[in-house]
């Protein structure tokens, strides 16, 4: 079995004698690819649900959520059909970027936000009770008090980011070994740099 066949994505197949055979465009993907597609579909549906309220708060945010939802739903079906091999690196990096954006919005706050969307309590569809939180379930994070752009944790938020984390792990596993090493090293480097920047901004 070839590496691409093990990945469950389109690629060159061989017969019993090792002769290359043309891969069928709709070959059956692996369980891992379909699981990643399902998880991205869940995240995409969450973004569909919360898009209207973001449009009401701030139109650019609503547009962003609509684009993200469309991309995640498309990628989910592509993974199910086995046609996402060429976009795997972009899918990994974009999913990691969305997770990073979520973490920043729930800790330090985003530098771009409408004044009307400043958080005074609750995430999407109600707050998520967080140990150590106060009142509206908001964790005690410096700068999270009323009027801050730090957003509260919501139930749909938690479902979405959990699905994205799991999908990211599966997507990285579906990549070719060389790509996997490069992308993993890049993600680790970006993560370390992000923590350093946060620490410098927080404690200086």
What this model shows, in words?
The chain has 204 residues and is mostly helical. It has one domain. 60% of the residues lie in helices and 4% in strands. The protein has a two-stranded antiparallel sheet. The termini are far apart. About 14% of the residues have low confidence.
Key attributes of the depicted protein:
6 helices, mainly alpha, globular, 204 residues, two-stranded antiparallel ribbon, single chain
SSE topology sketch:
Elements (H helix, E strand, L loop, with lengths): L2 H5 L5 E2 L5 E2 L9 H27 L1 H23 L6 H20 L25 E2 L3 E2 L15 H20 L2 H27 L1
Antiparallel strand pairs: 1-2, 3-4
Helix pairs in contact: 2-3, 2-5, 4-5
Separation of the first and last Cα atoms? 55 Å
Query: What structural class results from the helix and strand content?
Result: mainly alpha
The overall strand count is: 4
Continuous helix count: 6
Element-by-element helix/strand order: HEEHHHEEHH
**Form type:** globular
Biggest sheet strand line-up: 1-2
- The structural domain count equals 1
Helix content: 55-70%
Question: How would you briefly describe this protein structure?
Answer:
The chain has 204 residues and is mostly helical. It contains six helices and four strands, in the order αββαααββαα.
């Amino acid at each position: 079995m070839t590496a691409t066949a093990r990945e469950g994505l389109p690629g060159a197949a061989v017969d019993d004698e090792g002769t290359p055979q043309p891969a069928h465009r709709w070959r059956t993907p692996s369980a891992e690819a379909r699981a990643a597609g399902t998880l991205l579909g869940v995240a995409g549906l969450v973004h569909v649900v919360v898009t209207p309220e973001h449009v009401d708060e701030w139109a650019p945010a609503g547009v962003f959520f609509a684009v993200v939802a469309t991309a995640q739903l498309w990628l989910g079906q592509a993974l199910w059909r086995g046609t996402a091999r060429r976009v795997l690196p972009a899918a990994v990096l974009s999913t990691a970027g969305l997770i990073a954006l979520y973490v920043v919005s729930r800790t330090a706050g985003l530098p771009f936000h409408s004044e009307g969307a400043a958080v005074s309590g609750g995430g999407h569809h109600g707050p998520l009770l967080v140990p150590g939180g106060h009142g509206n379930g908001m964790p005690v994070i410096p700068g999270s008090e009323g009027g801050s752009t730090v957003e509260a944790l919501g139930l749909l938020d938690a479902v979405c980011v959990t699905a994205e984390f799991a999908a990211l792990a599966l997507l990285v596993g579906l990549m070719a070994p060389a790509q996997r090493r490069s992308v993993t090293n890049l993600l680790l480097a970006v993560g370390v740099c992000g923590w350093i920047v946060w620490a410098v901004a927080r404690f200086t």
